[in-house]
Amino acid sequence: MIRLRSVIFNVVFYANLIMRMVLLTPIYFIVSRKTSWFVPKNWARSNHWLMRVIVGTTFEIEGLDNIPKDGVYILAPKHQSFWDVYALLPWLSDPFFILKRELMRIPLFGWYVAKQRMVPVDRSARGRAMAAVMKRAKAEIATGRQLIIYPEGTRRSPGAPPDYKYGIARLYRDLQVPVVPVAMHPGLFWPRSTTLRFPGHFKVRILPPIGPGLDADTFLKTLIAVTEAASDELLVETVRNNPHLPLPDTARTRLAELGVTVPEKR
């Protein structure tokens, strides 16, 4: 049944994406940039509905009151699957991402992200790329936007040892805005290495912001400590509340390190 539901979800998910991009393109590019956010935000909401109805996966968000009221901050979520790329968009007013320049060349998709003034980075340029990214990020932050950046850079399996990149410390130091950590484990339900999607319930925990003013090294240590502590708590809670889940080896190893009895591997 899980395999069948996963196939149905994946087909409907991508059909939903393509249909919306094609049918809503005229509206998206006619209205103002901020108004056009209704297209990706409604798409995200429809994906949550599809996950709930087809797969049986639900989630709840804790700590929305930790989001700074003036709307200027860096959001720093754990990154485990494609789910967390779009999932929080409905709760953010005007976010932007730093993304690979190559993505801007994808027909239609590249036009969509260009309109939202996402910040492309040429990773082959190294130091020059970071300077250009910082200039653009400062300009967008100055207009009251929220930067979404994944501190570990790429998707990581649930329970994997932390691998935070120093780039977020540089952004924190130079942009001088709060950083809001986010812990969650969507990768247990939408794994990165399979097309299977698993039913169950999990929490997204938005943690108190780390205010500006720390030196970069102290900030990074603080970010890792608070995010990983919350991540461990949620890993234990999620696994206990969803005993049917097939756990990746990284989650099993971390649970054992935390002294939690791990179910037999199926």
TrEMBL record:
Keywords: Acyltransferase, Membrane, Transferase, Transmembrane, Transmembrane helix
Pfam families: Acyltransferase
Domain of life: Bacteria
One GO biological process term: phosphatidic acid biosynthetic process
InterPro entries (UniProt xref): Plipid/glycerol_acylTrfase
Pathway annotation from the record: Lipid metabolism
A GO term, aspect molecular function: 1-acylglycerol-3-phosphate O-acyltransferase activity
Lineage: Bacteria, Pseudomonadati, Pseudomonadota, Alphaproteobacteria, Hyphomicrobiales
Domain Phospholipid/glycerol acyltransferase intervals: 73-187
Protein name (database record): 1-acyl-sn-glycerol-3-phosphate acyltransferase
Species in which this protein is naturally found: Ferranicluibacter rubi
Sequence intervals crossing the membrane: 7-31
